[in-house]
Amino acid sequence: MRDTVLPVTEPVHVGQARSLATTAARDAGLPSATVDRIAIAASELATNLLKYARGGLFAITRGPLGLDLVAADRGPGLRNVDESMRDGFSTTGSMGTGLGAVRRLADEFDLYSRLGSGTAVLARWLIGTPHWRGVRVGSVLFAAPGESVSGDGWTAVDADGLVTIVLTDGLGHGPAAAAASAAAIGHVAADPGASLPVMLAAMDEDPASSRGSAVALVQLDLARGTLFFSGVGNVTARLLGPGGTRETLVSVPGIVGRRQRRGRRADPLVRPWSADSWLIMHTDGVSERWNAAEWPGLLGHDPATVAGWLLGQHIRWRDDACVLAIAGGEAS
């Protein structure tokens, strides 16, 4: 299954959201009763986007914990979240109808809303068990208009307590950009215990990567409470810590996969990492002009909700886009 983000602006998009969610659930091997629940939830979420927020985005993601549906908008927001969960609740000033039903249909449910800014809703159906030492990752992935596949991509792997996460943005759009991203991601999956400089060197020397990618690489050494970061090209990474601390982790200019390593710093950035730390990364299909301090309470929510909220607020709509929200972890 490919992760999908569907803009919801017309009634026909409600049926499309339901169809895409049904296909994703079947592809994930979920039982028919669960597939039916997911289809109903998709219809409810997309209908709310259209009716109460006058449009937004509907995302389907096969996440690390299961199948995620995320609806995000820039609508009026919810004045009373608890009241909005009651069956039949509906006002033209809020997104309410069906949210209580969606919460009952899903295995996990999360919602973040700000008056005057919008709402992000997560409904999740669990598949398997968590496997990244308590590191939580949420994502949303958007393909540029007119493309069937996104040139952005990501993966996360665990090598004995060393969790490595890569976000890639293949140059251009479409299948060729997706292939460039996949080539870079493949080196992380093939040798997850390697250092970041070794991984970047392998990506650079890959003869299959003729187009190249922008890349952000992160390693979390949970036993030492340490984050290592290396970025090349136009990928944003912001570290958010306890007490509102924040830092942009600076990437170096360039393209990975074209043997253009001259002038790059050899050593990764090193920062503390704890169970309360967050790292938000995104490609250039999302505006950098955001400040988490303007969204009180957001980091108390699921990483998938955080990723959906950020994409919903700052997507550019004309380019591939991917947001990763990474949080916490447990010492080995």
Give me the CATH fold name of the largest domain. Answer: Phosphatase 2c, domain 1
Count of individual beta strands: 15
> Based on the structure given, which CATH architecture of the largest domain is correct?
4-Layer Sandwich
Total number of domains: 2
Q: What is the string of SSEs from the N terminus onward? A: EHHEEHHEEEEEHHEEEEEEHE
For the biggest sheet, the summary is: 5 strands, antiparallel
Amount of helix: 25-40%
From the alpha-carbon coordinates, what is the Rg to the nearest angstrom?
Answer: 19 Å
How would you write the strand order of the largest sheet? Answer: 1-2-3-5-4
Parts with pLDDT < 50 across at least 5 consecutive residues = 90-96
Please tell me the overall pLDDT.
91
Q: How much of the polypeptide forms β-strand, as a percent range? A: 25-35%
Distance between the termini: 32 Å
| The top level CATH class name of the largest domain | Alpha Beta
Outline:
globular
Oligomer: single chain
Describe the 3D structure.
- It is globular and about 55 Å long.
- The model is unreliable at 90-96 (pLDDT under 50).
- The protein has two domains: 4-126, Histidine kinase-like ATPase, C-terminal domain (Heat Shock Protein 90); 136-327, 4-Layer Sandwich (Phosphatase 2c, domain 1).
- Strand 4 and strand 5 (118-126) form a beta hairpin.
- The chain has seven helices and 15 strands.
- The protein is α+β, with helices and mostly antiparallel strands and 332 residues long.
- It has a five-stranded antiparallel sheet, sandwiched between helices. Strands 6-15-14-11-12 form a five-stranded antiparallel sheet, covered by helices on one side.
- Helix 1 packs antiparallel against helix 2.
